[in-house]
């Protein structure tokens, strides 16, 4: 019996909050160390073991060599902190802030040191991605290869949670029981190596416990300072924490307080982990959106496969950008992928309304009068009967949106059906939780036109390429052809400005041709 239960437990898919809880707890038992370039790994581990068992460790490069060490118990960290020193500055004065980010010095640098193996934390070069795709055997294979190359690795996920946990320690100096959790693409299953780290400062847990106990004749409240609005409070809190990160946060550089934005934030770079971080507060809906995407991404492997391909395609075609502007965002594109998959017959994934119908009492969630309820237990959602392959779906995605009546219909994942457009914005994607808002209201007519044009062109390329593989082609084919800095322009109207990268592309094509004239078996990986 016991065995059966174990088996059930391992096959049960984790809910979003179970996953977050487990990762956060793991991060709290972990430390970050900046190390000299060459280091005796075994000796270091032996040295650290004095403070307790180590369950996991890895090394990575980011402005020098760094190590992440996970102890099996939190107490080990206190013991290590007791044995560590604040450095003595000679020309500068150190601010004595004791954190879980350490610097390691070797007493005898020359002693039998060797290179350690580093885990890669950054996105591979485009040329290498395209080469890998050219060596795949089918479009389906290419899509899976792309996902494997770009998706967040186990180590990268650990590092993201550890970074949040380190920042949480700093924020906790003001609000002892606050939490800082990652959201957005770091946790929604759609993140790729190199994506930013969105952090959510949660102060709400602090108030939660106190409101329930009202027995007896007295009600004790905290004496607090009041400000005119919640936004005001958020700005004050983020302002102070931003200041603190700037002054005392080990490894936190380029701190910018962007407090007048629609959603106030502190942006900074965490140099040691290499992450660009956006810290927000009071942003519960965004966390709920991340959970929703997590559910869709975990339900059916085709969701992630398609979203990765489309997001990567859009980035390569400059349809999306790291700078905010009048273009589509990754968030909007992912919602479009979800909508398209809801519209297949039979559907690949259910509508948000059906996820809401599957919810139980503890899933109920209302945020600022918006109903954000949906099922959290993945096992309650029936698998899809749709059997289409990812390559068919990718081609169909481009065809579907290449011909979508954006002028009269809106995209609505709550219903899983298009609706009449409520206003005249070029593209209307209903915000799944704040249903009167359009998440793509920033997109202008010309960006939408570019999207439609490139979608049609891409559908065309994929159809033309059907059945073709590396055995016969001397040029990037299938998904690789879509990811070239500029899709080979088959239509008559060549647009100005799209030939800029042609030199780089030419070189790339030449190197691929050179390789494909060799024995293909010799160049194919695996
Ligand atoms: P990357 O481009 O890889 O960073 O994807 P991302 O999903 O992390 O997007 P981003 O960092 O821009 O935003 C983080 C999260 O904020 C998203 O996952 C959403 O949950 C939320 N978000 C972003 N843009 C919007 C928007 O326009 N409307 C709403 N409602 N939420 C948004
Ligand atoms: Mg992000």
Descriptive notes:
The protein is an alpha+beta fold. It contains 18 helices and 13 strands. A five-stranded mixed beta sheet has the order 5-6-9-8-7, with helices on both faces. A four-stranded mixed beta sheet has the order 2-3-1-4, sandwiched between helices. The longest helix is centred in the C-terminal third of the chain and has 20 residues. The radius of gyration is 25 Å and the shape is globular. The N terminus and C terminus are likely disordered. Bound molecules: guanosine-5'-triphosphate (GTP) and magnesium ion.
- Average pLDDT over all residues: 88
Structural class by SSE content? alpha+beta
Number of helices: 18
What are the bound molecules?
Answer: guanosine-5'-triphosphate, magnesium ion
Percent in helix: 40-55%
Q: What is the strand content?
A: 5-15%
Brief characterization of the structure:
The chain is α+β, with helices and mostly antiparallel strands and 526 residues long. The chain has helices at 2-11, 16-28, 41-49, 75-82, 126-134, 139-150, 154-171, 204-212, 230-248, 284-299, 301-316, 330-343, 352-357, 390-402, 445-464, 478-482, 502-516, 520-523, and strands at 30-35, 54-61, 65-71, 101-103, 179-183, 197-202, 252-258, 265-270, 275-281, 366-367, 370-371, 409-410, 419-420.
Give structural attributes.
4-stranded mixed beta sheet; single chain; 41% helix; alpha+beta; binds magnesium ion; 5-stranded mixed beta sheet; binds guanosine-5'-triphosphate; 526 residues; 18 helices; disordered N terminus
